[in-house]
Amino acid sequence: MNTIANNIKQRLSLREPLQDSLDIVVQLCQELELKKEVDLEAELEKIKAHFPTCTDFERDFVSIAFSIATGVGKTRLMGAIVAYLYLQKGVKNFFILAPNLTIYDKLIEDFGNPAYHKYVFNGISEFVHNRPVAITGDNYAQQGALFSDAEIRINIFNIAKFNSDNRGTKQGGVSLAPKIKRLSEYLGQSYWEYLSGLEDLVILMDEAHRYHADASKNAINELKPILGIEMTATPFDEKGKQFKNIVFEYSLAQALSDGKYVKNPAIATRKNFQKGSLSDREVEIIKLEDAISIHQDTKNELEIYSKNNEVKLVKPFILVVCKDISHAKEIYELINTDGFYDGQYKGKVLQIDSSTKKEEDIEQQFISLESPDNEIEIVIHVNMLKEGWDVTNLYTIVPLRAANAGILVEQTIGRGLRLPYEGKRTGEDKIDKLTVVAHENFNAVIEAAQDPNSVLNKMSFVEIAEEDLSTKTVVVTSQPVMEQTFVKEQEKINVIVNPQDKQKAQNNLDAKKAIINVLPDFGSLPEVRRVEDLSKEEVKRKVIRQVEKNLSEGQGNLFAAQIVAEAKVIYDTMVTEYKKNIIEIPRMDLVQGETRAEFKQFDLDITGFNFQALEQEIIRMGLKDRQVETLKAKSSGSYGNPIKLIIAELIDYPEIDYDENAELLYHLATQAYEAIKANISNEEELPSAIFQFKAAIAEKVYSQMKQHFQLHSADYVAPRVFPFIRIEQWSFSSLVNAGYKDYRDIVSPTNMIPKYVFRGFEKACHFEYKFDSKAEQDLAFVLENDATVIKWLRPAPNQFRIYWDNNSKRYEPDFIVETESTIYMLEVKRSDQTEEETVLAKKVAAERFCKYASEYTAENKGKKWVYLILPHNEVSRTVSMNYLATKFKG
């Protein structure tokens, strides 16, 4: 394992396919000559020995291709390769080709702007003080740093400009050389000659299928690079022939199968859709309306996810693909009318094609589509959105132009596969899904999906019921009981007529809010071990001081003095109200420690440790007579300690930490040394043999060490525990019409339960909740009507900070229930899922939380915590909380 490459992988957080690709570059660069004028046949044979798919470079220099699906991170891989070639091989000159202006502009930011959030070299410490210089097709004549030998130079050129410049121009009837070949005043030679004369130029080709035409090939060949790296998601030339120099492939089908790096594409149609006598325009309107329904649902889910997980808000948009510019204009005008969704999308639609793209405001709106401040929700285009358009918030696509299934995927779906949250799936189905509305193409797409070689066989197919399309949803925020009480109190104050009475009531309410807002922050005081301690006089003084400080910040409050005075009067009452309306959930961050790797002690199997020193010779050839002679080379004998030589090789493997494994390393290296010593014919040659074969010896030892390698799952780190935490608000979607139900209502069919918001609770910490299943709704009924239950809570997603799966996921329990002596954390699961690996892993985390919580509350006169998993078929409206606790208590 190459140490430099391993560090780059970690620093750039390369995904697994990109790590594999970098390993290939490392492996080949150890064998290739990496210089001009090499024997291409010999170099090709070196590569074919490892990668038989590479049968022809198809260029006048060594060039290898990586076929990697859109959205996986080809640009980041290019950055990793640049970093490796510089740090390992000393390569300082790179030439990156972009197929169009969009990618050209993006690559300049990616490689040349350290402030850009996608800058590819973030984390490479060697580039902090020696930042690579981006030389572009617009500034190459002015770059004065080209003479610096220490500089890493990344030339970025747009191939379209490149080819047009290559034709040359005329001035005054005299033919001029192409622009890039004209003399540079600064260099004193043509820039082209300068580049082609570099002894370490490496070419990287983004979207490499665009550079397989003869004109591009010829121009690139003239640069005479030492190596070409080609990146593409579609490794086929303009004639449809597959590249012959592919060394790695990570297809879209594989990415979809892995379910990690791209959205899950789905084809949708309206249930029972029949075109029948419908006109083309009527079908288009139906498809657009259905797309709006899907879009609004996705928009709500993204807003809910943002609020519940405290992450950035992603604003989705719809892409409408039209036949031509005239068609695009018709659709644009249709969506902008009052008759389309009651004018809801007027001013929120953008037509982007050759007739509009040059308009500055339209271009700016197009570029900023990912910004939440951008109001555009529908983009209409003809055929302009090609490679390089890497937005992450495209969620719905509506093709209104005729296209077969293959083209539909290749030209359209690829534009919307990127994921918005750090390029990873969230686990939320609707947030990880790209939907293509294809009513009349639906069956054709399904048919195409039967082809096992088609990427479509990894797609899901959805028929949308008409009733689902006709129902609109909105995002609802369910506040904790006390905050909701304040809202109702404010409504009463707003209708008071007398100004003095109104202000007095407002001061009283503002004082209540001010106290309740800061109380949760005082759970970390040493003298506060439970909610009752908030009533201590010294705590009260600190809370009132904080209230006073908050009121004076910013523009202040004209009635701050009166509000503070009111707060002093009502303080004890508000502490009592606060305790009455919360469950005392201890505040802690429950995280796992680092996963520990260990090599178990063992004795080396010394079979095959029969290494003999090689003859060392010097070859000498006369320059004039070309006579060749050989001389024996005599060693100084200073090879160093042979056991330490073996250990030095072993610790180059990234899994082997010297400090943790020193004893084992010395034990194995000594056994290897003794085995070689016993088998060598001339003991004087022992140091030489070990020096010559140290890498092979280490590899044999390492292969045995791997058989005794263990990973120990990380245990939970004992957290610092505080007595209570604020009750967080919920956000979820609700149907616009008839979206609310009383929790006692029987909902039929039961699959409709997740669509409704339920109300009517008296013991809950919120007034409104949603449920994922009938079992959850039934359990809420039990909790509301069981005399032993004092309070209960359906926790918001960010209520707890309980982490599992090596801290990569946060556990969200279904219910928290307080009784006279116990607080229960409940998980409702399908009966056939209670023993699943993920359920049991979450159980470990939850039980550990309950353990630490109980230890804390036992010391502070609080209630013990107990975790229960409840099978869905054991929950009904006729059971009691005591029955469930007794039967399923671990």
- For the CA atoms, what is the radius of gyration? 34 Å
Spans of 5+ residues with little confidence (pLDDT < 50)?
165-176, 182-188
The chain-level structural class is: alpha/beta
Strand order in the largest sheet: 3-4-2-7-8-1-9
Shape: globular
Strand residues, percent: 15-25%
Percentage of residues in helical conformation: 25-40%
Counted beta strands = 31
Q: Mean of the pLDDT scores? A: 85
- How far apart the termini lie comes to 46 Å
Largest sheet: 7 strands, parallel
- Secondary structure tally, helices: 26
Please provide a written account of the structure.
This protein is α/β, with parallel strands linked by helices. It has 26 helices and 31 strands. The protein has a seven-stranded parallel beta sheet. A seven-stranded parallel beta sheet has the order 12-13-11-14-15-10-16, with helices on both faces. Strand 20 and strand 21 form a beta hairpin. The longest helix is centred in the N-terminal third of the chain and has 30 residues. The chain is globular. The protein starts with a helix and ends with a helix. About 2% of the residues have low confidence.
